[in-house]
């Protein structure tokens, strides 16, 4: 047990390296990328103390060069998932009983390993496997993951320090116990940081975890496991299985010791999982915690008083960074008629200067979308817009999957504010713009609020403070992360806690104490120093 009330070293947000031409970090990252590109990686499952190589291999191909194989991942079975659950449950007691500062040390060390010796490797794996450019890899797989690990340790200590008051003669305490049973993390392809954070933050609070990453993110997932192992994470605490989503969910959710789901991914999958958990509620020993951060149809609404160049820049970065494959990506924009010609012109200039290609070339702003399904999906929206009487492709529109899944940044302009690409999540570099009459500002705000089921991120642009205030009120429930005169992407851990409501998720705010609270079950302890020896009230029966 701790012999002191420790304070954790806390250093704030990890500085983002610039990768300037000639910099040491650029040289190291490029050399690592090239080396890893030529090697054949084998990604195993991590179950208890075993590194499991089933021999049933799935290929890992860079989305920007789909004929090239960089390695294989070993697919598991449901027997592996059952073993992972057993190993997690076996590890539970010792891990849950470990003093918090020992758990904290492991994750702080993991953060330092990523900040130092693993930085180039985890960024290169993210560039190769998920086709992020170096700058996007740096903010995700290095900085955001490091921040999640360090800030969550800080939040954990804040939670533990939060204690009730005590009246005279008693001492009240609360104990923040991990959940009873095992927890289950399912993670998406698009952020290495999310993938590492979901299992890690549950483990940090003393839980044991079965983690199923996306089969499109296995390369960087392996680096995460290597880091956790090197940081000293005991066997069985986080077990990584490489199995099908639906079957794995069934095995975990039907288990009596299933204690919590930490999910990030699409809305339809999360809704199905929620239902499945409800259907199995009589099997579970405890009410499972359910946290899910899901899809978005994120908006930018620009008032006539806003600066056209600022709006255009926010749209280009917000909609097209990482090929629009951010849950937060700007994908529907409402632009006042008086500024639209200037906004379009600025966007055209920007898009004309954007090059599309492999992340190995650091001058490429846009690289490939994740796979053929994603490519076909974006292409479908573009082709339907080209054929539609209600929409027009005004910028971009080129798609080419001969080498990689490249979709050029595309802007659709529609006359129908409920046109399909104003409503549905595309998750690709396709932005749809609806131009409104300047005097219809209030109706437009209502439209923004009512058009989509999602409520993840959104941005408002205006110079007039009354207008901003009006927009903030009208859009109060339309976004969990709301931006004023900025793009709707790029939340930073500790600065903008992230998550949305409505169909976008449970809004438990990744990278905050609010999220960590979901992975603990509080025991309240009252200790009485001088225990009464007589049942009677002092004046009972006395007049
Ligand atoms: N709100 C957020 O914080 C946030 C962050 C990142 C991504 N996302 C969302 O994630 C989606 C993109 O990621 P994706 O393509 O990896 O999502 P996805 O839903 O296809 O997959 C997410 C995970 O669920 C698994 N899965 C798929 N089908 C399953 C099933 N039937 N049962 C159980 N698991 C299943 C996948 O294998 C993967 O591990 C987008 O909708 C995006 O908006 C949201
Ligand atoms: N937190 C990220 C988005 C994560 C979802 O894909 C952002 O704020 O842009």
Automatic annotation (TrEMBL):
Pfam families: Aldedh. One of its GO terms (molecular function) is L-glutamate gamma-semialdehyde dehydrogenase activity. InterPro entries: Ald_DH/histidinol_DH (IPR016161), Ald_DH_C (IPR016163), Ald_DH_CS_CYS (IPR016160), Ald_DH_N (IPR016162), Aldehyde_DH_dom (IPR015590), P5CDH/ALDH4A1 (IPR005931), Proline_metab_enzyme (IPR050485). It comes from the Bacteria. It catalyses: L-glutamate 5-semialdehyde + NAD(+) + H2O = L-glutamate + NADH + 2 H(+). Coiled coil: none annotated. Keywords: NAD, Oxidoreductase, Proline metabolism. Residues 57-524 form the Aldehyde dehydrogenase domain. Gene3D superfamilies: Aldehyde Dehydrogenase, Chain A, domain 1, Aldehyde Dehydrogenase, Chain A, domain 2. Its EC number is 1.2.1.88. The keyword NAD applies. It is an enzyme of class 1 (oxidoreductase). Pathway: Amino-acid degradation; L-proline degradation into L-glutamate; L-glutamate from L-proline: step 2/2. Belongs to the aldehyde dehydrogenase family. PANTHER family: DELTA-1-PYRROLINE-5-CARBOXYLATE DEHYDROGENASE 1, ISOFORM A-RELATED, DELTA-1-PYRROLINE-5-CARBOXYLATE DEHYDROGENASE 2, ISOFORM A-RELATED. This is L-glutamate gamma-semialdehyde dehydrogenase. It comes from Moheibacter stercoris. The lineage of its organism: Bacteria, Pseudomonadati, Bacteroidota, Flavobacteriia, Flavobacteriales.
